[in-house]
Specification:
Layout lengths: L3 E3 L15 E5 L6 E6 L2 E4 H4 L11 H4 L3 H14 L3 E3 L3 E3 L4 E2 L8 E4 L3 H11 L16 E3 L5 E3 L4 E2 L2 E5 L5 E5 L3 E2 L2 E7 L14 H4 E8 L2 E2 H7 L7 H4 L2 E3 L4 E2 L7 E2 L19 E2 L2 E6 L2 E4 L10 H9 L10 E3 L14 H4 L7 E3 L2 E3 L7 E9 L5 E12 L4
Parallel strand pairs: 8-24, 10-18, 11-28
Antiparallel strand pairs: 1-5, 2-3, 2-7, 3-4, 4-6, 8-9, 12-13, 14-17, 15-16, 15-24, 16-18, 16-19, 20-21, 22-23, 22-27, 25-26, 27-28
Length: 393
């Protein structure tokens, strides 16, 4: 008879049975496979559930099964959490390599925070209305680069590009205004049919879970190139995704109504269920807390983002990732980008004993988040971190 073990869960771990986020991990000397986190351990699902679907290098095969299978697997794991697992299925988180959890099919980044959009508008257009006329009518977004979405912990090589000089003409070199964007990402599990829009009420039929995102941004490159089109080289060099995907079911107690939307959105964007989320993010810069952005203030919901993304007939695929855009609040300490925290580089902020505006080589940024549970505790979303490496040119 194979040996079995019980997983001890620290009281304040944030990774108890109410959470059970998924990952892809590599045990020492073995191929990557799908796991679920319980406390400080990872449960190898191929072994624990005796299912080869989980002996895969991404979550995609599992996610493609749809919400019925997602719910069944979660129920089985929760039922097993108080008992014992096969010893061969249990690995310490600290003893494995975490991989990119999904094979990213497409990547879209939205601009869904009213506070962030207002702050950015005031910085870039101080003598004009901060919001452009379309902003309150649709969730603005841009199509990003799936091939440069990387797992948390991957080094962030400082990008190079054209930068506007004082003369109004460009030079070329490393970005001097390298920034972060603290975001929440949504992972599509079940795709949709081209030509058939996904309604807001179908959100949970398609979206598997959420993961923290840092959409690194080169503000000087972005400011020069984004005239008149949107982000390109200033964004496409790297987007960091957490190694942990939290299933939607783990966020049931975090669901809240959206803030008032004025004017009311067009019918296809009207939420059929409350998909605001009471999630608080934390941004640490070189170990110092610099911001606590509140996702609860997001103007556009993820259900509205998905509905807008598909209303023209565009299809979604298993592994599609769409992100909220920078999460910010009305107070300075709630701003989710250095652009806002330093007000365009004009108001340095304290990072320990240093006063800083944008990122320097060697800096590390770590974004974490928590959400409430039915038991009155909080789950901890898997972190997303990155260290800045010098440009290569």
């Amino acid at each position: 008879m194979s040996s079995r073990v019980r997983i001890d869960i620290p009281a304040e771990s944030g990774f108890g049975p109410e959470h059970l986020p998924y990952c892809v991990f590599s045990p020492a000397g073995e191929q990557p496979r799908v796991g679920a986190r319980l406390g400080d351990s990872i449960v190898d699902l191929a072994v624990a559930l005796d299912d080869p679907m989980f002996a895969q290098p991404s979550l995609n095969a599992f996610m493609a099964q749809g919400p019925g299978i997602w719910s069944e697997v979660r129920q089985r794991l929760q039922a097993a959490a108080d008992g014992e697992f096969p010893a061969a299925a249990v690995h310490a988180v600290s003893a494995v390599e975490l991989r990119l959890p999904i094979e990213v099919a497409d990547y879209v980044d939205f601009y869904a925070s009213l506070d962030h959009a207002t702050n950015a508008g005031r910085i870039f257009r101080p003598d004009a209305e901060p919001l452009l006329p379309n902003w309150r009518h649709l969730p603005v977004g841009y199509h990003g680069r799936a091939g440069t979405v990387v797992v948390s912990g991957t080094e962030v090589i400082r990008p190079c590009g054209q930068r506007r000089t004082a003369s109004g003409t460009p030079d070329f070199g490393p970005s001097q205004r390298l920034d972060i964007e603290a975001e929440l990402g949504f992972v599509v599990g079940a795709g949709s049919v081209r030509g058939e829009p996904v309604g807001t009420g179908e959100f949970a039929d398609h979206v598997f879970g959420v993961a923290l995102v840092n959409d690194w941004s080169a503000r000087d490159i972005q400011a020069w190139e984004a005239q008149p089109l949107g982000p390109f080289l200033g964004k496409s060099f790297l987007t960091s995704l957490s190694a942990w995907v939290t299933p939607l079911d783990a966020l049931r107690e975090a669901r809240i109504p959206l803030p008032d939307q004025d004017p009311p959105p067009l019918p296809y964007l009207q939420d059929r269920a409350p998909w605001g989320l009471d999630i608080t993010l934390r941004v640490e810069w070189n170990g110092h807390l610099v911001a606590t952005p509140p996702y609860s203030r997001m103007y556009w919901s993820p259900a509205q983002m998905l509905a807008h993304m598909t209303v023209n007939g565009a299809s979604t695929r298993t592994g599609d990732l769409f992100a909220s855009g920078t999460v910010s609040g009305p107070e300075r300490e709630e701003r989710g980008s250095l652009l806002e925290l330093s007000w365009g580089g004009t108001e340095p902020l304290e990072v320990g004993e240093a006063k800083r505006t944008y990122l320097e080589d060697g800096d590390e940024v770590v974004i974490t988040a928590t959400a409430p549970t039915a038991s009155g505790g909080r789950i901890t979303l898997g972190e997303v971190r990155g260290v800045i490496a010098p440009a290569r040119y």
